[in-house]
Amino acid sequence: MIRRLPHVDRVGIEERAAVLGKRSIKTTAKQQGIRLAVSIVDLTTLEGADTAGKVRHLCAKAVCPAPTMPEIPSCAAVCVYPSLVGVAHEALQGTGVKAASVATAFPSGQASLEVKLRDTEDAVAAGADEIDMVISREAFLAGDDHRVMEEILRVKEACGDAHLKVIIEAAELGSYDHVRHASMISMEAGADFVKTSTGKAASGATPGVVLVMLEAIRDYAERSGRAVGMKAAGGVSTSKAALHRLVLVKETLGDEWLTPDRFRIGASSLLNDLLMQYQKTQTGRYARPEDFSKE
Predict the structure, then answer these.
(1) For the residues of 259-293, what is the DSSP string, one character each?
(2) Which of 37, 73, 99, 210 has its CA 20 to 30 A from that of 243?
(3) Residues contacting residue 117 through CB under 8 Å, at least 6 positions apart
(4) Three-state DSSP class for residue 170
């Protein structure tokens, strides 16, 4: 039934995204936008060389991104691999910043359901507040919607009280029609958030993909009455890109979605650019990269 959803107008989507991307945001509005963007960042490190020390440093930065600018809020979450969730959970306890973990054989998703469930259960047991799972793209592209939805349902059960973000990996789906469809079946299966990308693919949260997913969330909310969040991840590394994504959210879903509970940006390098741009609005000049700690 869902595969008979209306075709997505590629030209229309990309033209609208481009028009909204031309909005000029300056002075006070830009400062407000940057502070909002910081508050919705999932500060992320997903590298094989990650260590407990690196994660603790990242957590400290997420809690207090700019000690010399106390008006800058904390980030929304720190996202790490399951083996380091316990470190993040301990470092973030009592701060309001969430400990998030990728799971389900991230980033490929090429594992049995049993392995994916164990991956999720281990992360939750270690203290994860949020789980970012990947869908089985091979099942989706083969038309096996039942398997895709069943895996999401089972992982959602394994999450317990943790929120579930479902990654559709838009770059591997081939069309906006598939992006919309994958978003819809993820929401039908119980996703708390739908997420653009693992950040490991060639592209991720392009304006067109973000807009298609936001419109799917809007249509699903109107039909079901349930609000689902969205996470833009992959390629959002500058303040300009982050502010553009905020404009897309505001114009498509309204101010109610401009909160960490309903919109996130997953990034590893975005935060420093936001802080540099914010300081420029105050001083008129760019800071040096070394003035801010590395992610």
Answers:
(1) STTTEEEEESSHHHHHHHHHHHHHHSSPPPGGGS-
(2) 99
(3) 154, 155, 158
(4) helix
Helices H / strands E in the chain, number of each: 11, 8
Q: Are 206 and 239 in contact (CB under 8 A)?
A: no
Is 219 assigned a catalytic role?
A: no
Q: Find the radius of gyration of the CA atoms of the chain.
A: 18
Amino acid (1-letter code) at residue 230: M
Catalytic residue among 98, 116, 165, 195: 195
Q: Which one of 61, 156, 231, 273 is the catalytic residue?
A: 231
Domain ranges of the chain: 8-291
CATH code for the domain defined by 8-291:
3.20.20.70
Q: Among 132, 145, 192, 273, which one carries the catalytic annotation?
A: 132
Residue 231 annotated to the active site: yes
pLDDT in tens, 181-199: 999 999 999 999 999 999 8
Q: Within 13 A of 126's CA, how many CA atoms are on the CB side?
A: 25
140-159 per-position pLDDT tens digit: 999 999 999 999 999 999 99
The span from the CA of 181 to the CA of 269, in Å, is: 30
d(CA 157, CA 160): 6
Contacts of 272 (CB under 8 A, 6+ apart): 289, 292, 294, 295
**Residue 55 pLDDT more than 60?**
yes
Active site residue 291: no
Q: Check residue 294 and give its pLDDT.
A: 62
Cβ pair 98, 77 in contact under 8 A: yes
